[in-house]
Amino acid sequence: ARLKYECPALAKAVGERPGVVMANGTTQNVANTVYAFADLGYFAEAVFEELARHAERIAAQGIGQDIANILWALGIAGMVARHERTVRIFWDEAMSRPAVDFLHIQWSMLLLARLFAKSEGVELQVPRGSEQEKMLKKGASKSTESSERFERAVAKELSRCGFDGFEMEVPPFEAGAGGELMKVDIAWKEAKVALELDGPTHFLKSPRGSAKTLTRDGPSKAKARLLASLGWKVCGFSYLEAERVNAMSDDDRTQFWKAKLAEFGVRPAGQAQTLSALLGELRRKADRD
Question: Would you say the pTM of this structure is higher than 0.85?
Fold first, then answer.
């Protein structure tokens, strides 16, 4: 999974017989399998159904990394509400263990799992004043990977095209929930429009070496789903799309961005003011009538 190669045939084979791994594999085998499916974006229901059948045993026998991997996978795959009982078994186990059982990165994974659970309407409780609560707060300081050069180039291009009012690296959560764990790449906060820039690491690699096949990985799919659940309108822009747009003339690039962002209600500053003035005039006319 960490190499991020497409493997639909292997995923299909495991997905058709998940009991072989769940019943006979070690807790690490199970955790790694579930993690890999979620990371690659293969959200196979059968795998998570089989996990549910063995949840108590795996939770009791697994180490901290196993529990963090499984909870993260359930969140990434959007399986929390569907398998709430399973999630609570693993979450309760995590909250009952000494904090030292989990590394810092695993607390970050647990916090992400909690945020995804909340987006599905499932509240996972943390003992107040506990060491676990402290570690989850520390886990929020781990930021996700950011394609800073890509973001700056797009932000510069947007400014050239006359767009303003956007910010970079904006937390999508209210009241600081989530800390540095997840950010909107470029955001119009008031309008809740998220421009998500998808570099090569957001996609699975093709074994045949084709750079033209784009299949988003699990975390990228999950982030878009989470943003939508929070009321954000998500506009995606991939690195391959950027290559095509960068080859255009200045005028064509400007037209591209105007058309793309207009779908989400975002317009260049001058156009936005003109539209606002027009709406104001229509309102005043209606009041006079």
Answer: yes
